[in-house]
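Researcher: Structure for this, please.
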Amino acid sequence: MAFIEIKIWEDLTGVTTAASDKWDCAPCNTYYEDNRSQMIVTASQLSQMGAQANDELQEIWFYPTQASGGQMDNVRFYVAHTSATSLSAWVDYSSLTNVFWPTNVPIYSPLNQYHPHTLSTNFTWNWTDNLLFDFSRDNTAWVDWGMQRYTTNLSWSTVLIMQRDDGQSFPYAPTTVNSDANLIDLYLKFERTDTVNKNKNLLMSANF
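Model: Predicted structure, token format:
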């Protein structure tokens, strides 16, 4: 087994200012009762970082920079293959695969480091399509605050959209889009099974 860690903002853009704080990305922020985010990581980015066909996504890690006011309730992750490279409207849940079914997540501690989430269902990348990620949280009351790290200085298309509202419940059907040309800072862990020698595994990771 081997681990490979790649910083997408440096390896793909040459940008050394890696990330800054963002308060309205799901799921870390609890200022509103509910929030949701969708973002796209392209196939070319995944390939350049070393991912290959049939690699299985097993863990998603977030990097909180400010503690939320309380635990994050009913946290859900969805993933999907997509040919889209930008987002102008929400992709419906019917097109997504649930990989982290509703779970209450305690306040992240310590801050300023990655925190892992083991997926309830692994997701196999097909090596051709881009990956769309959907993160959401569904609390019954707002509790001040919470931020997480996200990449900056990227001259990409709109790859991140966000919505935060009170009084909604899952499944969300937001009608407005708050867009951003950046990405939530993620650490993704893939597992590779060598089909020639099944005793060999390669664990690959990518930082966003």
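Researcher: Any notable elements?
Model: The longest strand covers residues 72-82. The helical segments are 8-13, 43-48.
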